[in-house]
Amino acid sequence: MDAGTTAAADWWANAICRMEPGVVELRGIPVQELIGSHGFVATIWLMVRGTSPSPREAALLEAAMVASVDHGPQAPSIAIARMTATCGVGLNNAMASGVNALGDSHGGAGQQCVELLSAIVSREEAGESLEAATEAVVTDFRKHSRYLPGFGHRFHPRDPRRDPLLGLVDEAVAEGVVAGNHLRAARAVEELLNKGRAKPIPMNIDGATAVIYAELGFPPPLARGLFVLSRSVGILAHAWEETTQGRRNKGPVPTSILPTVLPVQA
Fold first, then answer.
1. Residues in contact with 111: Cβ distance below 8 Å, sequence separation at least 6, in sequence order
2. Which residues contact 79 (CB under 8 A, 6 or more apart)?
3. Cα separation of 117 and 206, whole Å?
4. 98 and 78 in contact (C-beta within 8 Å)?
5. What are the C-alpha distances in Å from 183 to residues 117, 128, 209?
6. Which domains, from first to last, does the chain contain?
């Protein structure tokens, strides 16, 4: 290749996908070898990490992703996708609109919880007791936020997804699949939060999946990315259902309900 062609090829250099006539390789593995042998979740791992997970690792990741696919149309991302689907656009537009609503407040708690738990684990590895590390990290976090990501839920007194996920992590720790340090940190936070409280604040889905992502070695930003992939399934299902119902220009409330008019401020 001449210098210009080489520069153009180098511009898009990557270790993820090699494609040329008759060849498609994902992380160096011919795609025809992956088809039928790699599950979708294992392929996600391969693509973002560059290695293939063990069957137990893939099963744990799959459990976390299954648990997060949907939480009903009251979730902004789902509601937005359903409304967009009635506006004369395609499914891809409706899905993109829903995904674009997943930010720090709606969709970011898993990433934030991984950061929280990782900070506790780092301090413990540096020699602090788990209790001291937990109290220090939680105290610091509360200086800039009322909420601890991954704990408590505005709908569920106890998130129904929490216990099955943590049970799977307990099994994985017992079998040596994961170390369990982030699981211990999460339970330490939960214990600290509930000291002296009559009404408990249990870990929620974001906390439980954060434990799994952290135990499996995913960096915090990928925890959010994996949640987005998971929730995209629910977004697709809701957008498609809304499309099949034939409604046009669906708004956030029925047309019989008009917004309250606020007084004009001087």
1. 210, 220, 221, 223, 224, 227
2. 73, 252
3. 12
4. yes
5. 8, 17, 10
6. 15-52 (no CATH), 69-249 (1.10.230.10)
What is the Cα–Cα distance from 201 to 198, expressed in whole angstroms? 10
Q: What is the pLDDT along the chain (266 residues), one digit of tens a residue?
A: 788 889 999 999 999 999 999 999 999 999 999 999 999 999 999 999 999 999 999 999 999 999 999 998 999 999 999 999 999 999 999 999 999 999 998 989 999 999 999 999 999 999 999 999 999 999 999 888 888 898 876 766 778 889 999 999 999 999 999 999 999 999 999 999 988 887 888 999 999 999 999 999 999 999 999 999 999 999 999 999 999 999 999 999 998 999 999 999 87
Q: For residue 166, list its beta bridge partners.
A: none
- Give per-residue burial for 139-174: e unless 16+ CB within 10 Å, then b: eebeeeeeebbbbbbeeeeebebbeebbebbeebbe
pTM for the complete prediction? 0.93
Q: Give the contacts of 238 (CB within 8 A, at least 6 positions apart).
A: 70, 73, 78, 81, 82, 85, 98
Distance CA 87, CA 140 (A): 45
- Within the chain, strands assigned E span 17-20, 23-26, 29-30
Rounded distance between C-alpha atoms, residue 17 and residue 30, angstroms: 10
CA 236 to chain centroid, in Å, comes to 16
31 secondary structure, DSSP code: H
User: Do residues 142 and 19 touch, judged by C-beta distance below 8 A?
Assistant: no
How many CB atoms lie under 10 A from the CB of residue 27? 17
Of 29, 7, 49, nearest in space to 222 by CA: 49
